[in-house]
Specification:
This protein starts with a strand and ends in a 12-residue tail after the last strand. The chain is built from 6 helices and 18 strands. Helices cover about 15% and strands about 40% of the residues. The protein is mostly beta strands and about 300 residues long. The chain has 3 domains: about 1-20 and about 135-180, Dna Ligase, domain 1, CATH 3.30.1490.70; about 20-135, 2-Layer Sandwich (D-amino Acid Aminotransferase, Chain A, domain 1), CATH 3.30.470.30; about 180-305, Nucleic acid-binding proteins (OB fold (Dihydrolipoamide Acetyltransferase, E2P)), CATH 2.40.50.140. It has helices spanning about 50-55, 80-85, 115-120, 120-125, 140-150, 225-235; strands at about 1-5, 15-20, 25-30, 35-40, 65-75, 95-105, 110, 130-135, 155-160, 170-180, 180-190, 200-205, 210-215, 235-240, 265-275, 280, 285-290, 290-295. The strands form 4 sheets. Strands 3, 4, 5, 6, 7 and 8 form a 6-stranded mixed beta sheet that branches. Strands 11, 12, 13, 14, 15 and 18 form a 6-stranded antiparallel beta sheet that branches. A 4-stranded mixed beta sheet has the order 1-10-9-2, covered by helices on one side.
């Protein structure tokens, strides 16, 4: 079940609020002595996060399916998507799984139960430092938004009380408000910097079957990420530009790719998804002040759309 993106949140006792966590959405599935972590596109993340897998064995049920978010907390205790790329290798980073819903317990499906009934099962199932509960945030919508802004966190999710779980649906019973502009984009090419590094990524989003160009991204590409990306993208090289609207005219913010610049770019098959933060969309439909945050392993490229 996915949340619908909105520009404002409903302010009513009919809604509860949670943090929008900056991580990978996943299902934790326990079946006896076996635990799996599955991403929203059904990728197996079990071996990538052994601490969560081990903690999953302590779930207080023989069988359970728990919905949540894999998050890395930095030294200040804040979710960090960039730290998640390195799976908490920093000694002061902590890998955790924040549970916010439960779909199945010991042979009983719960998706047809109201939200409050499902969430009431979590305290009995989840405990410890690695498996945590995404707690309800107290206060009005305005108070919650103000508090989350002060903490510098990504956003807020509102969920309608009494709502049922709708697998595979982007429901208006779950709403998400982003307090900073960031979303996933498809990498369709890059400007090389020598043979083994990248100067800038070329990213876009799908509109129907067309991959639309959103802009060049250079900020956030530190030396090691430039090399890692070059190694990952090189096998996907393609002679064909995947963007339907390139070449373009020169952008006011330098975000276009002119016909003269096309030969400078390396094109790839549009299969890799990156998380990008940006200041705003320009009138030309380009990203302004875009910065690379990391790759997304939990999103399918063909599902990426412009969100705002």
């Amino acid at each position: 079940m996915a949340a619908h993106l909105v520009r404002s949140l409903p302010d009513s006792d009919d809604w509860m609020y949670e943090l929008k966590l900056d991580g990978y959405r996943a299902l934790l599935i326990k079946n006896g002595l076996q635990v799996q972590l599955r991403s929203r596109n059904d990728k197996d993340l079990t071996r990538m996060y052994p601490a969560i897998t081990a903690a999953g064995l302590k779930v207080n049920a023989a069988q359970a399916v728990i919905d949540g978010e894999i998050v890395v907390l930095d030294e200040d205790g804040c979710p960090s998507f960039q730290a998640l790329q390195h799976r908490g290798e920093h000694p002061r980073h902590t890998v955790v799984f924040y549970a916010f819903d439960v779909l199945h317990v010991d042979g009983r499906g719960l998706t047809g139960e109201p939200l409050e009934v499902r969430r009431a099962r979590l305290p009995d199932l989840v405990h410890g430092k690695v498996l945590r509960i995404s707690e309800e945030l107290p206060g009005t919508a305005a108070q919650v938004i103000a508090a989350v802004k002060r903490m510098g966190l990504e956003g807020v999710v509102a969920k309608r009380r009494g709502s049922l779980y709708e697998p595979g649906e982007r429901s208006r019973d779950w709403l998400k408000l982003k307090l900073e502009n960031q979303q996933e984009f498809v990498i369709g090419g890059y400007r090389p910097d020598g043979e083994s590094s990248i100067d800038a990524l070329l990213v876009g989003y799908y509109e129907g079957k067309d991959l639309r160009f959103a802009g060049k991204v250079r900020a956030g590409l530190v030396p090691h990420s430039r090399r890692e990306l070059a190694a990952k993208l090189a096998p996907l090289r393609s002679p064909q530009c995947p963007f339907s609207d390139l070449p373009s005219g020169k952008s006011r913010w330098g975000g276009g790719v002119t016909a003269d610049q096309m030969h400078e770019m390396s094109w790839i098959k549009p299969e890799v998804v990156a998380q990008i933060r940006f200041a705003e969309w320009t009138a030309e439909g380009r990203l302004r002040h875009a910065a690379y945050l990391g790759l997304r392993f939990d999103k399918v490229a063909s599902d990426v759309r412009r969100e705002a």
